[in-house]
């Protein structure tokens, strides 16, 4: 769980930047978006397969252009 401890000389903007970086690194926002609504297992599987196809096509395009 992200958290920021401030010393006497740290200002709020610095602490906020540090906290946002920790939240992004922990993947909390992406997890929150994923849990916003329920997806049926079949829908989840199709999305996962589509993402894999997209990654593969991107990899193939990159290899052909080089």
Structure description:
The chain has 66 residues and is mainly alpha-helical. The chain has helices at residues 12-26, 28-34, 41-65. It starts with 11 loop residues before the first helix and ends with a helix. The model has no long low-confidence stretch (mean pLDDT 89). This is Small ribosomal subunit protein bS21. InterPro entries: Ribosomal_bS21, Ribosomal_bS21_sf. Belongs to the bacterial ribosomal protein bS21 family.
Summarize this, please?
Belongs to the bacterial ribosomal protein bS21 family. The chain is mainly α and 66 residues long.
Which helices and strands, and how do they pair?
Elements: H1 12-26, H2 28-34, H3 41-65
InterPro entries: Ribosomal_bS21 (IPR001911), Ribosomal_bS21_sf (IPR038380)
Keywords: Ribonucleoprotein, Ribosomal protein
Protein name: Small ribosomal subunit protein bS21
Mean pLDDT: 89
Unreliable parts: none
Distance between the termini: 42 Å
Count of all domains: 2
Structural class assignment: mainly alpha
Radius of gyration: 19 Å
Give the % helix: over 70%
Categorize the overall geometry.
elongated
Question: Proportion of β residues?
Answer: under 5%
Please count the beta strands (DSSP E, at least 2 residues each): 0
Total helices: the number is 3
Helix and strand pattern = HHH
Please outline the major beta sheet: none
